[in-house]
């Protein structure tokens, strides 16, 4: 958290850490308070930084919550995006996006638009990411869950210069997950502008 504080302070921006656990999201009062807290922080121009509260978490294993559900930073991000009704969720990795196979394999191709019906049985995952603890498998699972619940998701590289700015500008970045992606199958490519419009319209 100290690193976030240092980096944001260089931009004259304040940040605040919010700790959550897997069981918190089953509590309606907590979820209501969560929304109110985030809205209050944003109104004060404070960036909320979410983290799992490991000290009181009820998880029995590193990647399971109290109900045996997969749990990592990506699934946490998806839960928060759904709860806060985000317009878009961006999951950052150390590779450009989702590939058809291990990124180190020259035969693997970057998938610009993920179509569940087409890609879920065709993709071969490589090693876990160097950042985060769940790897690309966790990111895809979180992205699919969020996308099919109505939140567009993009997986892209956090090492790409100005990656978030480019995503918000509608430039083609990484892999897009969208609940209507299967309707675009007849198009060979979905351009960046189309991706941005689709993501924006779906949030209205």
Would you kindly provide a written description of the structure presented here, covering whatever features stand out?
The chain has 204 residues and is an alpha/beta fold. It folds into 2 domains: 1-71, no CATH class; 87-204, Acetylglutamate kinase-like (Carbamate kinase). The chain is built from 7 helices and 6 strands, in the order αβαβαββααβαβα. The protein has helices at 2-9, 28-43, 73-83, 116-119, 135-147, 163-168, 192-202, and strands spanning 14-20, 46-52, 89-93, 113-114, 153-157, 175-177. The strands form 2 sheets. Strands 3-5-6-4 form a 4-stranded mixed beta sheet. Strand 1 (14-20), helix 2 (28-43) and strand 2 form a beta-alpha-beta unit. The longest helix is centred in the N-terminal third of the chain and has 16 residues, at 28-43. The chain is globular, with a radius of gyration of 17 Å. Mean pLDDT is 80; it is low at 66-70 and 129-133. It comes from Rosa canina (Dog rose). Keywords: Amino-acid biosynthesis, ATP-binding, Cytoplasm, Kinase, Nucleotide-binding, Proline biosynthesis, Transferase.
Show the helix and strand layout.
Layout: H1 2-9, E1 14-20, H2 28-43, E2 46-52, H3 73-83, E3 89-93, E4 113-114, H4 116-119, H5 135-147, E5 153-157, H6 163-168, E6 175-177, H7 192-202
Parallel strand pairs: 1-2, 3-5, 4-6
Antiparallel strand pairs: 5-6
Helix pairs in contact: 3-5
CATH homologous superfamily annotation of the largest domain: Acetylglutamate kinase-like
Cα-atom radius of gyration = 17 Å
Biggest sheet strand line-up:
3-5-6-4
Estimate the global geometry from the Cα principal axes. globular
Keywords: Amino-acid biosynthesis, ATP-binding, Cytoplasm, Kinase, Nucleotide-binding, Proline biosynthesis, Transferase
GO molecular function, one term: glutamate-5-semialdehyde dehydrogenase activity
InterPro entries: AceGlu_kinase-like_sf, Asp/Glu/Uridylate_kinase, Glu/AcGlu_kinase, Glutamate_5-kinase_CS
Organism: Rosa canina
């Amino acid at each position: 958290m100290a690193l976030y504080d240092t980096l944001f302070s260089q931009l004259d921006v304040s940040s605040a850490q919010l700790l959550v656990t897997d069981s918190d999201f089953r509590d309606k009062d907590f979820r209501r308070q969560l929304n109110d807290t985030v809205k209050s922080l944003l109104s004060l121009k404070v960036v909320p930084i979410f983290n799992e509260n490991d000290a009181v978490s009820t998880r029995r294993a590193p990647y399971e919550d109290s109900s045996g559900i997969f749990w990592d930073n990506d699934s946490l991000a998806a839960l928060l995006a759904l709860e806060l009704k985000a317009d878009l969720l961006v999951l950052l990795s150390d590779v450009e996006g989702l590939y058809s196979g291990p990124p180190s394999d020259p035969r693997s191709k970057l998938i610009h638009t993920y179509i569940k019906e087409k890609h879920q049985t065709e993709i071969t995952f490589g090693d876990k990411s160097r950042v985060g603890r769940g790897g690309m498998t966790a990111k895809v699972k979180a992205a699919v869950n969020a996308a099919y619940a109505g939140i567009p998701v993009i997986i892209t590289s956090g090492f790409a210069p100005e990656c978030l700015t480019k995503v918000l500008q509608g430039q083609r970045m990484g892999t897009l997950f969208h609940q209507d992606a299967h309707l675009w199958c007849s198009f060979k490519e979905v351009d960046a502008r189309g991706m941005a419009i689709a993501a924006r319209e779906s949030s209205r």
